[in-house]
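Re: the 484-residue chain
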Amino acid sequence: MAAVWQQVLAVDARYAAYRTPRWPQFRTQYVRRRSQLLREQAQGGALEGSTRRWYLRVRTRLLAQRYGALSEQSSCRAHSSSALRASRTTLDRMEDFEEDPRAARGHRRSLSRGSHPGAPRGAPDERAPGVVPTPLAEASRAMAGDTTLSENYAFAGVYHVFDQHTESAVPKVQFAHDDRHLLACCSLDGTISVCRLAPGPPAVLRVLRGHGGGVADFAWSLSNDVLVSASLDGTLRLWAPADGRCIRRVPDPDGAALLCCAFQPLNNNLTVVGSARHMVRVVNISTGKAARGGAGRLPGRVLALCFDAPGRVLWAGDDRGSVSSFLCDPGTGRLTKASRVVVQAGGSITSLSARAWASREAPDPSLLVNACPDRLLLFRVVEEEGSGAPGLRLRRSFPTRHREQPLRSCFCPLMSFRQGACVVTGSEDACVHFFDVGRAARATVNTLQGHGGAVLAVAFNCDESLLASSDATGTVIVWRRQHA
C-alpha cells in the first residue's frame, strides 16, 4: 500500500486542473504550502498513522464536494483524452515531506523548469558491488539480505520533478546506458530534454529542438554519444546529446509519421524505425540511407520495436494487435520475416521489452507486451517446432487501465527468477504499477501515486536506485528507493 502522504499527493494532483485553472501559480503555491505544513507535522510526530488516514478521507470528501466527484477513469480522461493533447497542469514547486523521522530536516522535493535547477539533492549512496546480474543494483544486495520483494521495490520517495514539457505529453523517458544520473525524455511538443540528476542540483542540461512535429520515441546509443529520435513530422534525427547538435536528418521515404525507433544492439551504426504506413525500415545512420533488404511490412501502424539481447531477433507491434518477429543480420541490417502472432485482436501493441532471465530455472528469454485494452502480458520466447522461428507462449497476464494512451512498461534490471523479479508499467489511472511475475495471486508489489494524468512511460536507471515516470500532462517524476 502506498504511503498516506503519497495518496494525499495523488488526490491533489488529480484535482489540480480544477483549482484556479486560469492562474496555475496559485494552485501550485497552495499545494506547496499544504505539503510543507504536513511535512513539518509529520517530522514533529504530530500526526499518527490513523490520523493521517482520517485526514486523507476527509480531504477527499471535501474536494469532491467543492469540485465534484472524480473517478479514476474520468480523472484520466479529463487530463489525457488524446495522445496529441495534454493538460497544462503541473505539480509546480511542490515540496516532499518525509514520514521517516530519521529524514534530514529541510529535505525538500526539487523541481526543474527548463534549464533552472531546483533544490540540491544528494546522490544515492555508493556501495560495493553485490549480487549478479546487476552488480551495482541495490535490489540485488537487498535480496541477498533476505528482504522481501515489496521492500526491494519500495519506490515511494520523490527525488525530483521535471516539468519543462507542461504543454504536451511525454511519451517516453529513458536513462542513459550504465549512467545512474543521465536522463532523457521526449515530448509531443517536438523537443527532447537531456537532464542530469547528479552531481549538483538536478537540472535540464539542454533541449534538443528541430523536429516539426511531436517526438514519439527516441533511443540512446550504447556509448550514450548519440540519440536517435522518431517524429510525427516524418523524420528520423540523430543528435549529439553532449552539445545538442542535430547530426543528421533522415526523412521517411513514404513521408509517413514515424512512431518508434531502436538501435541495433550489436551494431549501433544501424537504427530501426517504424512508421504509420505499416513499414519497418533499417537505416544506416552514417549514410542516412536504408539498408539493402532492411524493410518489412506489418498489418497495421508500427507502434513498438525492440531487439532481443543477442540482437538477432527484432520484435515489432502494431495497432492491429499483432506482434511480428524478424531475423536481423547485425552486419548488413537485412530483415527476414520470421513469425506473426495476434496478441490482442482489435487492440493495439503499444510497448515491447525483451529480456533474458538470469536463472537456470527459467533459461528462456521473455517478452513484455502492453496490449490495449487493459492488458500487460509476459510471454516466454520459444522456438517453433519445424520452422525454428521465434514463437510466443503466454506466461502471465496482469490487469492494467489501458484504453487510449500509448503506455509503456519495462523489466526491473534485476532479472533473477530464483530471487523474484518485477515488471513495471504506466497506467491510465495515473499510477505506476509494480508486478511480481512469480506470484500466482496478488501480484501487485507496489503502486506509486502522484501523477496528474495517465502515466505513459517508466524507466529504471542502471543500478535500480532511481525510477523515472512520465505522463500525459508533461510531468516527469523521478522516484528514489526508500532505504531501510
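Residues 24-43 form the longest helix (20 residues).
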